[in-house]
């Protein structure tokens, strides 16, 4: 029959040992190390991109929070969303820069500009977790 494939394992215990190392190591590499590195690098890039005193305060309030499955970028600055996305559609948001929709002013543009760098961090984490396979 077409499409049938037969796999033969010469050393099944060794294969299972390596597979176990990958299954245990991959979440740790991705969730703990890579996620935190990407989040910290993203925050650093956003802080460098923020212009103006209020945007600078909003960017400097960014921090990395750990959560199950990765990292989270958080801010405790009350005007963070206004500084990042803008406002001016209502009287109470006139202190923010003009609304830019989902484009953002510093956090999201920094993420887009550094996406290749972040991708390399993720790929390195996968390579590190699967190095027992090689």
Can I get a quick summary?
This protein is mainly α and 134 residues long. It is 55% helix and 9% strand.
General description of the model:
It is a single chain. With 134 residues, the protein is mainly α. The protein has one domain (33-129). Helix content is 55%, strand content 9%. The protein contains five helices and two strands, in the order H-H-E-E-H-H-H. The protein has a two-stranded antiparallel ribbon. Strand 1 (62-67) and strand 2 (70-75) form a beta hairpin. Helix 1 (12-49) runs antiparallel to helix 5. The longest helix is centred in the first third of the chain and has 38 residues, at 12-49.
CA-based gyration radius:
22 Å
In helices, the fraction of residues equals 55-70%
Shape assignment: elongated
End-to-end distance, in Å?
32 Å
- Spatially, the strands of the biggest sheet line up as 1-2
Low-confidence stretches: none
Total DSSP helices: 5
Report the sheet with the most strands, covering strand number, pairing sense and barrel closure. Answer: 2 strands, antiparallel
Structural class by helix and strand composition: mainly alpha
Number of domains: 1
Q: Per DSSP, what share of the residues sits in E-state strands of 2 or more residues?
A: 5-15%
Order of helices and strands: HHEEHHH
Estimate the mean pLDDT confidence: 89
Q: How many β strands by DSSP?
A: 2
